[in-house]
Amino acid sequence: MSESTDINRKRLAWQCRRGMRELDEILGGFLATGFKQLDEQGRTHFSKLLEYPDSVLLEILIGRMTAADRDVAHIVWQIRSTFAP
Q1: Quick one: 68 exposed, middle or buried, by C-beta within 10 A (0-12, 13-18, 19+)?
Q2: What is the 3-state secondary structure (H, E, C) of the chain?
Q3: pTM score, two decimals?
Q4: Which domains does the chain have, with CATH numbers?
Q5: What is the dihedral of CA 55, 46, 68, 65, to 10 degrees?
Q6: Which of 7-11, 30-34, 38-42 comes out lowest in average pLDDT?
Q7: CA-based, 20 to 30 A from 64: which of 5, 7, 11, 22?
Q8: Mean pLDDT for the chain?
Q9: Which helix (H) or strand (E) holds 85?
């Protein structure tokens, strides 16, 4: 792993720590398991998702809201697929 990749991953890990247990588990879990499957564009969209406020982010991730941005909605689908029972 290159140094810049390691730095970016640490930055994302920090951004995934939201202080809300549900978000921490979902985002941190996806970063640990599903993120590595994303291409560069998918990683950019994941970063964009992390810019959402916590309350909106939770509503989108649990399915009470739909992201208006199609690319973010696709990442949300991938996150949900990773944790589907």
Answers
A1: exposed
A2: CCHHHHHHHHHHHHHHCCCCHHHHHHHHHHHHHCHHHCCHHHHHHHHHHCCCCHHHHHHHHCCCCCCCCHHHHHHHHHHHHHCCC
A3: 0.87
A4: 3-82 (1.10.150.250)
A5: -40
A6: 7-11
A7: 11
A8: 91
A9: none
